[in-house]
Design goal:
Number of domains: 1
Radius of gyration: 18 Å
CATH topology: Rossmann fold
Strand order of the largest sheet: 6-7-8-3-9-10
CATH class: Alpha Beta
CATH architecture: 3-Layer(aba) Sandwich
CATH superfamily: P-loop containing nucleotide triphosphate hydrolases
Helix content: 25-40%
């Protein structure tokens, strides 16, 4: 059974041409799928449709074997598919890192002690324990990016949806993020403009162009970029 199956997805923002015009793909267990495309092609839009934050004009979203049509259908999807937003400030809103990471487990009904245990486990696993009691809004952009990943992983998702995950990361933190992602068992979709990062992470790629997803055209290995 596919984790996600999207078919014939059409979506446009008011007053603009359709950004998605028949897009579709499958995400299987073990996939690390990179989605590429120019700015404004609809990559972030597609991720938001997958978890019900945007509603397509037409098409089907099947998540974890169940077709999702209404808001209520996506409640479980948002628990099982963790979306890391392109802008970390859209995702972090608690005073401290520990509170931000604990928020998801508490929202799932964990006790405070259980949530704090999850915080310790996730921070230790990602080697981020030094951030535990830091004030979130005082973190650097790269530090916030790693904390948003920790907050999503605290929810124990089955799928990761990563929107430009290397934004604001320096070389050291990008290497750390790459190491973390390669160690995770979850299937994932990675939207990234960084070809070197995609090459390290992805098991396959699709390109979003003119509202549809397709296999990317082969490029010359020795082409000048």
């Amino acid at each position: 059974m596919a984790l996600f199956e999207l078919s014939d997805i059409r979506f446009g923002y008011p007053g603009h041409p359709p950004v998605l015009d028949g897009a579709g793909f499958l995400l299987e267990q073990g996939d690390r799928l990179a989605i590429t495309g120019h700015n404004g092609a609809g990559k972030s839009t597609l991720l938001r449709i997958m978890v019900g934050l945007l509603t397509p004009a037409s098409g089907r979203v099947v998540a974890f074997g169940k077709e999702c049509r209404q808001e209520v259908d996506f409640h479980d999807v948002r628990r099982r598919a963790g979306l890391v937003f392109q802008d970390a400030d859209d995702q972090l809103f608690c005073p401290t890192v520990a509170e931000d990471i604990a928020f998801g487990p508490l929202n799932l009904g964990k006790s405070r002690d259980e949530a704090l245990a999850i915080v310790e486990t996730v921070l230790a696993r990602l080697d981020l324990m030094r951030f535990r009691d830091r004030i979130t809004h005082k973190l650097s952009g790269g530090e916030k990016r790693l904390v948003t990943l920790a907050a999503v992983l605290a929810m124990e998702p089955d799928v990761l949806l990563l929107d430009e995950p290397t934004n604001a990361l320096d070389e050291e933190n990008e290497a750390r993020l790459t190491e973390i992602l390669l160690s995770l068992p979850q299937a994932m979709i990675v939207v990234s403009h960084d070809p070197h990062f995609r090459m390290k992470i992805a098991t396959r790629s699709l390109r979003l162009s003119e509202g549809r997803l397709a296999e990317p055209e082969p490029t010359c290995r020795h082409a000048v970029v």
